[in-house]
Design a protein that fits this description.
Distance between the termini: 22 Å
Radius of gyration: 22 Å
Order of helices and strands: HHHEHEHEEEHHE
Helix content: 25-40%
CATH class of the largest domain: Alpha Beta
């Protein structure tokens, strides 16, 4: 519904829902969709971080109001977007072809109208003298990031994914296939950078969910999922991208809305 909506009964129901949910309409539920109702709709959009739609009460606003008034979890609203990825590679002495990780991520994202927009800058690769990186060693992580950044400066709307060979992981409880750093965690010198991902080219995880798993980490989510089939779990049976994780990806800083 939008300003001037002729169905006054429907408008009145919308207005009553807005008022009940705590959004002010000074003249009450009159059945007239004017500036006051449009302002209340925009307030819903701002408060719940919905797409701004010039005061039009669309699917996102209606489902959000329904969730607020019934206590149900709102249905994930996901607009088609491409996740912006910058792909780089350290001189890691070979390794497996990473394509299966990209293909699996693309397949899972496609179910939600999402895609991957990959800028492939693996060639030329950049020097990393130790040849292998320990993702549990903050000094290693910092150095490989600095060298990747020196080769190609990052941008706030694109997630950096660095392919390298993992070596010793003495500080980890298991040998990881991928790792996400940056974000809320400072580098070894105390500086903070946006999230970036390291992928081990020395070994391939057979479920091919490593990249999509790390993409979810890069949205700021730390605690793994307890559902064994979720790609954000650490189980051997993970295969499903949940709507809530797709929604996080859709709203993340590296998602670009398709026009």
């Amino acid at each position: 519904m939008k300003p001037g909506e002729p169905d006054r009964v429907a408008v009145k129901i919308l207005q009553e829902a807005l008022i009940q949910a705590g959004f002010d309409i000074p003249h009450g539920a009159t059945g007239f969709f004017g500036p006051e109702t449009a302002a209340a709709v925009r307030a819903v959009e701002r408060k719940h971080k919905l797409d701004l739609d010039e005061g039009v009460a669309g699917h996102q606003v209606i489902t959000t109001l329904d969730a607020l008034l019934t206590g149900r979890k709102p249905i994930a609203t996901i607009r088609g977007a491409d996740l912006q990825v910058l792909l780089q590679q350290a001189n890691s002495l070979g390794g497996f072809i990473h394509r299966p990780y990209l293909e699996k991520a693309a397949t899972l994202l496609d179910d939600f109208g999402l895609g991957l927009d990959v800028v492939d800058r693996r060639v030329p690769n950049f020097d990393f003298p130790p040849a292998t990186a320990d993702p549990s060693n903050l000094s290693d992580v910092t150095e490989i990031f600095r060298r990747a950044e020196k080769r190609i400066p990052g941008s706030p709307d694109r997630l950096r994914v660095i392919l390298c060979r993992f070596g010793n992981t003495a500080g980890a409880s298991f040998h990881p296939f991928g790792s996400t750093a940056g974000g809320v965690f400072p580098l070894a010198d105390g500086s903070r950078v946006q999230d970036f991902v390291l992928i081990d080219v020395g070994r391939r995880r057979t479920d091919d969910c490593v990249l999509i798993h790390e993409l979810i980490h890069a949205t700021g989510l730390v605690t793994h999922d307890t559902d064994s089939d979720s790609v954000f779990s650490v189980t051997s049976s993970r295969s499903v991208l949940k709507p809530e994780h797709a929604e996080r990806l859709n709203k993340a800083f590296f998602a670009r809305i398709r026009h």
